[in-house]
């Protein structure tokens, strides 16, 4: 399974009023493992950033003046994301800017070049209703260090979001084997289930059990004593 965690920085908040992308950063996950095959460009937006946006990302017009224009990186970006699940925090914002940039070039909407778009903000709100679910808040909640994040940067934020996403979804692994390029969505032969009798069971060490208990303590505290795992263990 190939996933791309994506983030952008922009000149402002509204692509319909002419704001542009000035940085795009992507990190690749294959089977939930970071590959190091990243995609990162600063982009010349051909306009100044709004004062509020500049305070967030710190990318000046002078710094961006010799960087490639979006038209120069569009094909490489399309090839990079082709067929992958795209993971974005507050996806409508980034996708809106990407659609605007693609539209200027006469290209179809960004989502049509990917397998699907997953919004981690929507996922976080479902998992933590009523709580703050900004990227910084999620980093704190899941123990992902963002101490080196003085200003927003697309590649850095994509790397942080990848760690957060893996922590948020760590229980979603499946005991199946992908058959690779011969598999097709909806094909009953696309995945091969491992017979239960052939699954090798490795029992947790004392150190791992202690770490598990510490994790449950945190969940129990977060859930105010309503941790399902603790309730099941008591029955």
Tell me what the structure shows.
With 235 residues, the protein is α/β, with parallel strands linked by helices. The chain has two domains: 2-176, Nucleotidyltransferase, domain 5 (2-Layer Sandwich), CATH 3.30.420.10; 177-234, no CATH class. 39% of the residues lie in helices and 17% in strands. Strands 1, 2, 3, 4, 5 and 6 form a six-stranded mixed β-sheet that branches. Strands 7-8 form a two-stranded antiparallel ribbon. Helix 4 links the parallel strand 5 and strand 6 (116-119). Residues 173-197 have low confidence and may be disordered.
Overall pLDDT, averaged? 86
* Strand segment count: 8
Give the CA-CA distance, first to last residue.
37 Å
Q: How many structural domains does the protein architecture include?
A: 2
How does the overall form come out from the CA principal axes?
elongated
Derived from helix and strand composition plus strand pairing, the structural class reads: alpha/beta
Give the ordered list of helices and strands. Answer: EEEEHHHEHEHHHEEHH
Relevant CATH superfamily of the largest domain = Ribonuclease H-like superfamily/Ribonuclease H
Report the biggest beta sheet as strand number plus sense, adding barrel if it closes: 6 strands, mixed
C-alpha Rg (nearest Å): 21 Å
Q: What is the second-level CATH architecture of the largest domain?
A: 2-Layer Sandwich
Helix percent band: 25-40%
Strand content: 15-25%
Q: Tell me, what is the CATH class of the largest domain? A: Alpha Beta
CATH topology of the largest domain: Nucleotidyltransferase, domain 5
Poorly predicted ranges = 173-197
Supply the number of helical segments. 9
